[in-house]
Specification:
mainly alpha, 101 residues, two-stranded parallel sheet, 2 strands, Non-ribosomal Peptide Synthetase Peptidyl Carrier Protein, Chain A, 4 helices
């Protein structure tokens, strides 16, 4: 089953809250602000996230959490909350795939 728009599943299951916390901490480091300054419902472009930053976010997911996230996935779920919901949501035909698929 090859779905080019799907996210890859992490090696361990992550909670929505853990993924939101990771995203806000990661963005805070990149943007040189505190995680408390990031509202998880704020569109990422309002935080200054652009296509280059999106690539850094995808690399961070892969390196730190073992999750393969494509730039299109970030753009389609363009808040920390929406992206975390997508990553931790129930598996469906278009849901996460095992890493390397």
């Amino acid at each position: 089953m090859n779905n080019r728009t799907a996210l890859s599943a992490p090696a361990v299951e992550l909670s929505h809250e853990a993924v939101v916390d990771w995203i806000t901490a990661f963005l805070a480091e990149i943007l040189d602000i505190t995680p408390n300054e990031i509202d998880p419902s704020t569109p990422l472009d309002h935080l200054g996230v652009d296509s280059a930053t999106t690539l850094v976010i995808c690399a961070g997911f892969r390196e730190e959490l073992g999750i393969q996230v494509r730039p299109r996935d970030v753009f389609d779920h363009f808040t920390a909350d929406a992206l975390a919901r997508r990553l931790t949501g129930p598996l469906t035909g278009t849901g996460p795939l095992p890493a390397g698929v």
